[in-house]
Write a structure and sequence with these properties.
The chain is rod-shaped and about 100 Å long. 21% of the residues are buried. The longest helix is centred in the first third of the chain and has 45 residues, at 22-66. The chain is built from 3 helices and 3 strands, in the order H-H-H-E-E-E. The N and C termini lie far apart (103 Å). It has a 3-stranded antiparallel β-sheet with strand order 1-2-3, covered by helices on one side. By secondary structure, it is of the alpha+beta class.
Length: 137
């Protein structure tokens, strides 16, 4: 056996016994996974927050016609669209009055509510929010 082959055989087992740099390898593997999970959680949380704010806007708009501040379904729709514009400029709002009940439905693209947009699975999802109130007057 040659001298260089013996030296190589002595060095190779030593390399497998040392764990220098294992933390760097772990970081390279885990940090991207944590980043993806964090962005998913942030996007979903912001969508839920947008849904809650939209629900509040629809309830407030319905309450305006319920208490007599607004007179027609079109006024309620316009009020809701105007207030939803800062949350989602692409939101569509429909309002109907059936007897003593006013119902407002808003459809908001989820892509308007996410911050990062890292996950494309939410790009085509629409969030539907509705509110129904009894007209008091």
């Amino acid at each position: 056996m040659s001298k260089s082959l013996r030296a190589l055989r002595a060095v190779i087992p030593q390399q497998f016994q040392h764990e220098h740099g294992s933390i760097s390898v772990d970081a390279v593997i885990w940090i991207p996974i944590y980043a993806v999970m964090t962005s998913l959680i942030m996007d979903v949380a912001l969508m839920l927050d947008g849904q809650a704010r939209a629900t509040r806007i629809l309830q407030d708009s319905n309450r305006l016609i319920s208490t007599g501040f607004l007179d027609s379904a079109s006024e309620v729709r316009d009020e809701a669209e105007e207030r939803l514009d800062h949350i989602s400029p692409n939101a569509t709002v429909e309002t109907s009055v059936n007897g003593d009940v006013v119902t407002t439905v808003a459809v908001i693209p989820a892509s308007d509510l996410d911050a990062i947009g890292f996950l494309y699975s939410f790009a085509e999802v629409d969030i539907t929010v509705s509110a129904t109130h009894l007209i008091e007057l």
